[in-house]
Design goal:
Blueprint lengths: L7 H11 L2 H4 L10 H19 L1 H9 L2 E3 L5 E3 L4 H10 L18 H14 L1 H20 L2 H13 L2 E6 L15 E4 L5 E11 L8 E8 L12 E6 L1 E3 L5 E4 L2 E6 L10 E6 L9 E5 L6 H37 L1 E4 L8 E3 L4 H33 L3 H37 L10 H9 L8 H14 L4 H19 L2 H27 L4 H6 L1 H29 L6 H15 L4 H22 L1
Parallel strand pairs: 3-6
Antiparallel strand pairs: 1-2, 4-5, 5-11, 5-12, 6-7, 7-12, 8-9, 10-11, 13-14
EC number: 1.3.99.41
GO molecular function, one term: flavin adenine dinucleotide binding
Protein name: 3-methylmercaptopropionyl-CoA dehydrogenase
Length: 603
């Protein structure tokens, strides 16, 4: 089974031609990350991903993690993970995006997105540990006290300590207003935390010296609902005044979930103060202001939602590589056109080619969309002009649910196609195709299901602001459409398909703005189809931009076969994906009322 190889050619193309890495490298604080430095970062990440992480993907899936009851409950990782993690932090990867003040590399979000994609494609289970740590670091950087930053961030950035986010409880699920975990204030200014959290990724493991839990809980006088939630830092081991590790805190993994996929990643049930006689409550310190915990946690949540979208991209790329290699090697049947003698590889069969091109074109569209959003994130942070920062932030806010929702849903479809390309062998675990389908399934669920992302998109991101940002995006897409239509041949056809897709988005946005306030339930029935429509059309927009760049390179005399292939891929995307836009618009605009009526009668 072939190991993962980072698609560096396409990554560099998207970074430089579509996301303007050189422009990002001119922003204050990012000056060193253009050109040769960016290439070196990607090359080293590619080597680590294929040489260290990828070989552990299958073995970790088969061996799984192990929970032991000793010491109140602890987790042992699969063979090789501890060693790989040590190499990971020794190479400085854990702090790739963190503030250099605390030992981080300070990479732009754009460059970091490409690095993350590689790790996630190579070994999704492993990549979830630094993902959660990165989110915890960002939350503490922005909201923690100076004492908390000094205590935790240097070791977390280095990777000696990892981080988690603890939101979900058995009775609450996605309804954070129903959280019951308690935080009892103590005379010394600390709090004793009591309660249980579920689905805690890397809640316990044996790869780091300490684990820093960020925990949502309620103080005794907290108001009900989400307005009464506070955020606390609760380390696995308490930290002494000199920075050394002290006593074991009363925070334990009491069991692990037995999951469909990501078998090498521990998903823990955590007990704070409820795991027996281990200390009478977990000791924690308040982050920021009391009752403002949800605001702080959403710092982690938004970063995690973008990263989960990258997980979808990584799995899609890995599944495509796997399916393509198998299709080229598997000889079965004759060429239906009669042009090739004897039996041929299945990659020559029309339907297999269709499936492979669906995998390839959507993966490339996903990459282009995600990286472009990452570039806007960097501009929102570092652009010297305040208005430009605000515009970029509005773009990021609009597109985060699309990146999270569309990329992960599409990754599931691509992983499914990967199994189908293998035929009967895809159903056999030994070929490896099934693992991508199993691993992909969680990505549409955690950090907010696709329905949650879609409701956020139509409600907070479109209806609440009167569609201002989405209309700006539509105008940008229309400009690309005009450029495409000015060209001939396949380029013009891409523009025509994109134009129809944009019209579908416009129709749906008008429907959302007209009906959301008066008939929210009916409009919300179309939320997920609209999110899919936005993903497909915005992906088509990026593929159209890619085709224009490729055409210009060809016209300038560049003979690299990459460029005509990019145009063909963009045309395929237009014919097979953008063509779905009108049907999705029909569902969004017309399907809400009938769905609710049927549900009223039948459910």
């Amino acid at each position: 089974m072939a190991e993962y190889l980072a698609p560096l050619k396409d990554m560099h193309f998207v970074l430089n031609e579509l996301a303007d890495l050189e422009g990002i490298a001119r922003l204050p604080g990012y000056e060193e990350f253009g050109g040769d430095m960016a290439e070196a970062v990607l090359d080293e990440s590619a080597k680590f991903s294929s040489g260290v992480l990828s070989p552990l993907n299958v073995s970790g899936d088969r061996a799984r993690i192990r929970w032991e009851a000793e010491e109140g409950g602890r987790v042992r990782m699969a063979a090789g993970f501890r060693e790989a993690y040590q190499q990971f932090i020794d190479a400085g990867w854990n702090g790739y995006s963190a503030d250099p003040e605390y030992g981080g590399q300070g990479l732009p979000k754009l460059l970091g997105a490409a690095v993350q994609e590689m790790w996630m494609a190579a070994n999704l289970s492993f990549s979830l540990c630094p993902l959660l740590t990165s989110g915890a670091i960002e939350a503490l950087e922005l909201s923690g006290s100076e004492a908390q930053k000094a205590c935790y961030l240097p070791n977390m950035v280095q990777g000696r300590w990892t981080g988690t986010m603890n939101l979900t409880e058995p009775q609450a699920g996605s309804d954070l207003a129903a959280i019951r975990a308690r935080a009892v204030p103590q005379a010394d200014g600390t709090y004793r935390i009591f309660g249980q959290k579920i689905f805690i990724t890397y809640g316990d493991h044996d790869m780091s010296e300490n684990i820093v839990h960020l925990v949502l809980a309620r103080t005794p006088d907290a108001p009900p609902g989400v307005k009464g939630i506070s955020l606390f830092v609760v380390p696995k081991f308490l930290v002494n005044a000199d920075g050394s590790l002290g006593a074991r805190n009363d925070a334990y993994c009491v069991s692990v979930e037995h999951k469909l996929g990501i078998h090498a990643c521990p998903t823990c049930v955590m007990a704070f103060g409820d795991a027996g006689n281990f200390g009478g409550g977990a000791i924690g310190t308040l982050v920021g202001e009391e009752n403002a915990g949800l605001k702080y946690m959403f710092i982690m949540m938004n970063a995690a939602r973008f990263s989960v979208g990258l997980e979808g991209l990584g799995i899609a790329e890995r599944a495509y590589q796997h399916a393509l290699a198998y299709a080229r090697e598997r000889v079965q049947g004759r060429d239906i056109s009669g042009r090739l003698p004897g039996n041929v590889s299945i990659s020559k069969h029309p339907d297999v080619r269709r499936m492979l091109m669906l995998m390839k074109s959507q993966t490339e569209a996903m990459r282009a969309l995600a990286y472009s959003v990452a570039a806007h994130h960097d501009a929102a942070l570092r652009h010297p002009d305040a208005e430009a920062r605000a515009q970029s932030q509005a773009h990021v806010d609009l597109m985060i649910p699309v990146v999270k929702g569309w990329l992960t849903e599409t990754a599931n479809e691509i992983a499914y196609l990967g199994v189908q390309v293998h035929g009967g062998m895809g159903f056999i675990e030994e070929t490896g195709a099934a693992q991508y389908m199993r691993d992909a399934r969680i990505t549409t669920i955690y950090e907010g299901t696709t329905g949650i992302q879609a409701n956020d998109l139509i409600g907070r991101k479109i209806a609440r602001e009167g569609g201002a940002t989405v209309k700006t995006v539509i105008a940008q897409m229309r400009a690309t459409e005009a450029e495409l239509k000015q060209a001939g041949g396949q380029i013009k056809a891409i523009g025509e398909a994109l134009g129809k897709g944009i019209a579908a988005v416009e129709e749906c946005v008008a429907h959302i703005l007209a009906g959301y306030g008066d008939d929210t339930a009916t409009v919300s029935v179309g939320a997920v189809p609209f999110l899919r429509l936005m993903g497909i059309v915005c992906g088509g927009w990026q593929m159209g931009r890619a085709a224009l760049v490729a055409q210009a390179r060809i016209a300038a005399g560049d003979g690299d076969a990459f460029y005509p292939a990019k145009i063909v891929t963009a045309r395929f995307y237009a014919d097979h994906l953008l063509a779905q836009a009108a049907g999705l618009a029909q569902t969004v605009v017309q399907g809400g009322a009938s769905a609710l009526e049927i549900a009223e009668e039948m459910l």
